[in-house]
Amino acid sequence: MSGGVGAVGEVRGGPADDAAARLFAGPGELRARCRALDWGATPLGAVEGWPQSLRTAVTLCLASSFPTVVMWGPELVQLYNDAYRAVLQAKHPAALGQRARDCWPELWGVVGPLCEEVLDTGASVFVEDQLLAPERRGERAAAEQAYFTISCSAIPEEAGRPAGIVATVLETTRHVRSRGERERALERANAALRESEARFRLTADAVPQIVWITDGQGRTEFFNRQWTAYTGAPYEPGTAVQIAADFVHPDDAAITLERFEVAQRTGGVFEVEHRIRSAQGEYRWFLVRAEPYRDPETGEIVRWFGGSVDIDDRRRAEAERERLLAAERAARAEADAARATAVANERRLAAVIAHLPVGVTFAEAPGGRHSVSNPAAVAIWGVVPASPGVDAYSRDFVGFRPGAPGVPEAARRIASEEWPLARALLTGEVVRDELAEIERPDGTRRLVSLSAAPMRDDDGRVSGALVTTVDVTERERLLADAEAARAEAEAANRAKSEFLAVMSHELRTPLNAIGGYAELLAMGLRGAVTDQQREDLGRIQRSQRHLLGLINEVLNYAKVEMGVVRYDVADVRVCDVLAAAEGLVAPQAQAKGLTVAVADCDGELAVRADDDKLRQIVVNLLSNAVKFTDAGGRIALSCEAGDDGWVRLCVTDTGVGIPADKLAAIFEPFVQVRSDLTRPAEGAGLGLAISRDLARAMGGDLAAESTPGVGSTFTLTLPVA
Questions:
Q1: SS (H, E, C) 36-48
Q2: Do 400 and 412 meet the contact criterion of CB atoms below 8 Å apart?
Q3: Within 10 Å of residue 138's Cβ, how many Cβ atoms?
Q4: How far, in Å, CA of 197 to CA of 207, rounded?
Q5: Calpha distance 82→39 (Å, rounded)
Q6: Of 361, 371, 359, 363, nearest to 422 (Cα)?
Q7: Neighbours of 581 (CB within 10 A)
Q8: Contact indicator for 440, 381 with CB cutoff of 8 Å
Q9: Sheet hosting strand 701-707, strand order edge to edge
Q10: What's the longest Cα–Cα distance across the chain?
């Protein structure tokens, strides 16, 4: 290439210089540097060989007041305007005519894919507030973190394929770091985008946006190739109504036509945001803007020059930003609420600790200094437990381990490291209910129960320990008194049972003799017996049998209470027990005119029980039913196997019933509900008590339900075999 360049702005002669002078004519540093640069030495080659689309893009770039860079060809050679110098800083002026990858090697991992996407697809890329770390302050300066809003659009060559990129780059660092500034930066970026879009709409096919022209009534006259590339539809003349119906989202068609009608009527700018259907059937948001062109003579609107700019990414970014802002506000509110809750909980905890009847002391790790002691702790110890550390525990606190009588106190005294609080701090041990006898400053001693536990931080290290102190002096005294009373009561009960057993045996011997002699006399062994004598002997025998029955009951109860009854638990068939019991009480029932009904029972149904004890219980229940059911009444005996693993034997009568206030007492020994004078005493009141004790000893229970005047039901529950 002929000619040469001296200082910036000096133009050499020759065709290339003429072409550069024309293309880069005008004021400004970058125009001067572009005129002076030997473009033939760059991958772009001499200016006179540049395609028209590149020249158009360069002209618009240099005329823009926004930081704009044109990257052309496979090497993405840079050409930028004066405003872009602020983005480059120390990289200027070396960046002019330099490959973008070589200019921004530290950013190419982020910027490179954006450029590749634009060149590969021809679609525009908009990135808002992108965090980058450019090295633009010189060789020795460290990289800085900065935010940039970048809008990249493809520059098609004459054949229609993307051959370069025009990018508007705004640094938004301060705006990102300040919300108010960020919003103003966004508005300026949007204004820059709108201005850039307005400038590029006149470049038609040289820009990647949809450009269109209609007549004054809205009938289309022109669509650039971006329309076909996006919609997949070739250009065909049509009305605004047809375009809206065929390509605009149904929800946006009405407002689009309404806005266009208003612009036509008022002569103002037509502007609307609506969604346009792509060739793939998806909808993207576009900003549509058109300026009217009037007839110079008549002033009538004869054409509309418009452009449709893809703003889908921007709207998504705005929606995402609003979502993030809302999430941030929600998170802040949640954090504030959590802090308020934590403060309230701390206050509640402090109030609870202050009013606990248990002494609470907290010690800090690692030294063991006491930092918190509630009033109860002060009251128990007789002093504020504020020891400076673990090493001083045995000095500040006097305590002894409860030991055997005769062990010297010196041997029982608790060392510093032996206190539960010290063990929790030093080893992380958890101590529960450890007794110690403490000596208070006034010389008095108390028996206390100590529990201690370590408190750990997030890393699991012991950060402190908590000890609780409970004064158990009175409790231990009461427990000792209670134990002594229990032992005394058990001894008295055993003595009572032994007395009853001995006395019952002593009484049964003469009663048997009385019965024997009365029977002998009745047989006439001592001479003839008159009818009056025989009646008297009968009374003697009945009284003897009654007294003997009472004594036997007392003996049985004494055996149960003393725990000397042996149980031979095995599988017992229920039907056999019911049949045997019914056979034993049938004569008594018939004598009183009672009906005894035994329900059908599964022959294989069995329970775990002692056979003799089970029969004794059932016979006793049936005998009681006969005693307390008047003539003409009914007694029912039934069994039922439940799904819960229990068998229930029920004895139901239509007798006099038991008052509700007496129902719980009938299982107590020596209790008879019917002890009135209208009915002679028929027992000692031990039968039900013995029966329930036997049932419980076999793993079951005995319960009763009753309604006075209606009858009673006694239910024996035993485990199924």
A1: HCCHHHCCCCCHH
A2: yes
A3: 9
A4: 9
A5: 18
A6: 363
A7: 25
A8: yes
A9: 595-598, 634-641, 646-653, 711-719, 701-707
A10: 177
Residue 516 belongs to domain with CATH number: 1.10.287
What pLDDT, on a 0 to 100 scale, did the predictor assign at position 677? 32
Q: Tell which residue, 471, 454, 463, has the closest CA to residue 377.
A: 471
Contact 656, 610 (CB under 8 A): no
Residues 139, 89: Cα–Cα separation, whole Å:
12
Asked which of 545, 562, 579 is the last residue of a domain, the reply is 562
Helices (H) and strands (E) in the chain, counts: 21, 23
On whether both 573 and 558 belong to a single domain, the answer is: no
CATH number at residue 374: 3.30.450.20
Q: What is the DSSP letter of 391?
A: G
Identify which of 548, 669, 682, 556 has the alpha carbon closest to the alpha carbon of residue 612. 556
Residues 406/346, Cβ–Cβ less than 8 Å: no
Average pLDDT for consecutive 10-residue bins of the chain (721 residues)?
35 65 93 94 93 93 94 95 94 95 94 94 93 86 87 90 94 81 64 56 69 92 90 90 94 95 94 95 95 92 92 91 91 86 76 82 85 85 73 83 73 86 90 90 90 90 90 83 76 66 65 73 80 82 69 65 74 92 88 90 91 90 91 92 92 92 81 48 68 91 92 94 88
Examine residue 187 and state whether it is found in any structural domain, yes or no: no
Contact between residue 81 and residue 31 where contact means Cβ atoms under 8 Å apart: no
**First CA to last CA across the chain, in angstroms?**
115
- 265 with 285, same domain: the answer is yes
* Whether 87 and 125 share a structural domain: yes
Read off the amino acid at residue 45. Answer: G
Is the N-terminal amide bond of 366 cis, ω within 30° of 0?
yes
Q: Are 414 and 520 within one domain?
A: no
The number of folded domains in the chain is: 5
- 3-class DSSP state for residue 522? helix
Instruction: Out of 162, 177, 192, pick the residue that ends a domain.
Output: 177
**Does a structural domain hold residue 614?**
yes
Is residue 33 included in any domain, yes or no?
no
- Judged by DSSP in three states, 21 sits in helix
Task: Determine the Cα–Cα distance for residues 637 and 652; give it in Å rounded to an integer.
Answer: 7
Residues in contact with 407: Cβ distance below 8 Å, sequence separation at least 6, in sequence order: none
We report the CATH number of the domain holding residue 659 as 3.30.565.10
Whether 452 and 515 share a structural domain: no
Beta strands in 344-444 (DSSP E): 359-364, 370-373, 398-400, 431-439
Closest Cα to residue 501, out of 438, 462, 570, 557?
557
CB 37 within 8 A of CB 21: no
- pLDDT at position 716, please? 95
Secondary structure string (H, E, C) spanning 129-165: EEEECCCCCCCCCCCCCEEEEEEEEEEECCCCCEEEE
605 & 671 share domain: yes
| Residues in a beta bridge with 292 | 304
| Token pair belonging to 157 | 């060559």
Domain that holds residue 648: 569-719
Distances (CA, A) of 11 to 7, 29, 38, 61, 333: 9, 14, 11, 21, 65
- pLDDT on residue 469: 92
Residue 700 lies in a domain: yes
CA pair distance 317, 321, nearest whole angstrom:
6
Separation of alpha carbons 22 and 146, rounded Å: 37
Amino acid of residue 467? V
**671: buried, middle or exposed (CB in 10 Å: 19+, 13-18, 0-12)?**
middle
CA–CA distance, 637 with 596 (Å, rounded to integer): 8
Q: Side-chain half-sphere of 229: how many Cα atoms within 13 Å?
A: 17
- Residue (of 547, 560, 549, 528) closest to 693 by Cα position: 560
In whole angstroms, what is the distance from residue 476 CA to residue 48 CA?
110
Let me know whether 530 and 644 are in one domain.
no
Same structural domain, 575 and 710: yes
Q: Where are the beta strands (DSSP E) in 505-588?
A: 569-573
Three-point CA angle 290, 292, 298, nearest 5°: 170
